[in-house]
Write a structure and sequence with these properties.
407 residues; alpha+beta; two-stranded antiparallel ribbon; 4 helices; 12 strands
Length: 407
């Protein structure tokens, strides 16, 4: 019964859906009348499962409607993968072909598929052949004139060409007419002196002539060698450790003297050498008459620096003089140096010293500032005072000058 029912179901599966359901219902009713309840239930369950499989694989998924232009009708084309036979083909016997059904209603248009992935770029093709030249374009307008370029370099001088041949001599010209008579020429130079004549006999001695006028004064003779020098002259140049030209340096050192506040001691300044020498001495500081350095009190960059000095010797001079308030020497005298007149201060507790001529470009001993402090002598500028001197030629607001001269 099951075999027959399944064969019947397979045969009816090719018919249209409405015919299959009607025929199948009738066949199922006949089977159920000839069987018991349990058998019918089992057959019904098997048929339901088999019907679902047949419809899924054989009818619903495998039938396509194809339009035949020859018969002008739509036919059902049974398609399936060749490698996957349906369950109906495995279990059912092939039935007779069914009638061609009516064309089905066209289904809705399917959704567009997703765009495919871009493929890899292809290989680069070979360069194409060079194309034919295009037609010539129209001639463009004339461009503006370019800017003037820089002048070129001067060319090399060419070599002189070969000398040309001398031209042919022309024919002589005609003889001209005689010119007018010229002026008389100048007298010619005297002729050469002839040879001396024969010596005559000596004549009688004449009377002596008158005395002639005195002749011109002769040229002055050359200066004789210098005479013997006796003595020479020595002076001190304050504010410098060197001597002027023409003078010999005996020694250089520092200006020394008595402290400005001491009532005793010496009043003059002395030039102390840089390399002292000692004889017998008594150890210890006695303090009877100390000699200290002299420092500038000039209120400038040399303030409180020690003053240098130099002892100079001039072998060709026999006298020196220091002239205050002057910068030049008398005629026939030689200027050794000029500068400023300096001395100690007049206010208490300063005490009197001598006046000395300190060089105009006086120098300071490097590193000596603060060496002496309040234990030193001092150099101050000096000025004229209108209380005791005529202020006509002198000016009490100007520092006095000085000059040292030799002869």
């Amino acid at each position: 019964i099951v075999h027959k029912s399944m064969a019947s179901a397979c045969r009816f599966s090719y018919i249209r859906s409405s015919s299959r359901l009607t025929t199948f219902s009738r066949h199922l009713a006949r089977v159920m009348r000839a069987s018991s309840f349990v058998t019918v239930s089992a057959q019904l369950l098997v048929l339901i499962v088999f019907l679902c499989l047949c419809m899924a694989t054989g009818v619903s998924a495998s039938n396509e409607y194809v339009y035949s232009p020859r018969t002008q009708r739509s036919a059902v084309e049974h398609t399936r993968p060749a490698s996957c036979p349906t369950l109906r083909e495995l279990l059912c016997e092939p039935g007779p072909p069914g009638e061609i059904g009516h064309p089905g209603i066209p289904g809705p248009r399917g959704l567009d598929g997703l765009p495919g992935v871009n493929g890899d770029p292809g290989m680069r093709g070979r360069p194409g052949d060079i194309g034919l030249p295009g037609p010539s374009g129209e001639r463009g307008p004339q461009g503006n004139s370019g800017s003037k370029g820089p002048p070129g370099n001067i060319g090399l001088t060419g070599q002189p060409g070969p000398q040309g041949n001398s031209g042919l001599s022309g024919p002589p010209g005609p003889i001209g007419e005689p010119g007018p008579q010229g002026n008389d020429g100048t007298h010619g130079r005297p002729g050469e002196i002839g040879p001396p004549g024969l010596s005559g006999e000596p004549g009688v001695q004449g009377m002596p002539g008158p005395i002639g006028a005195p002749g011109l004064h002769g040229l002055e003779g050359k200066e004789g060698p210098p005479g013997l020098i006796s003595g020479g002259v020595v002076y001190t140049r304050w504010g410098k450790d060197s001597c002027p030209n023409g003078a010999e340096l005996l020694y250089a050192g520092r200006a020394g003297g008595t402290k400005w506040s001491h009532t005793g001691g010496a009043a003059n300044y002395i030039c102390m050498p840089s390399d002292p020498e000692y004889s017998d001495y008594q150890p210890g500081v006695q303090g009877y008459s100390p000699v200290t350095w002299i420092e500038y009190e000039t209120q400038d960059l040399k303030q409180e620096y020690n003053a240098p000095c130099a002892s100079c010797y001039v072998p060709t001079r026999i006298a020196t003089v220091m002239i205050p308030a002057k910068l030049t020497c008398p005629s026939s005298w030689t200027k050794e140096y000029a500068g400023y007149l300096m001395a100690s201060r007049i206010s208490s507790p300063h005490y009197r010293t001598e006046f000395v001529c300190v060089d105009r470009s006086f120098e300071a001993i490097p590193g000596s500032v603060g060496d002496s402090g309040y234990n030193s002598g001092v150099f101050y500028f000096t000025e004229a005072s209108c209380y005791g001197m005529p202020c006509g030629p002198y000016n009490e607001e100007k520092e006095l000058t000085c000059v040292v001269c030799s002869k």
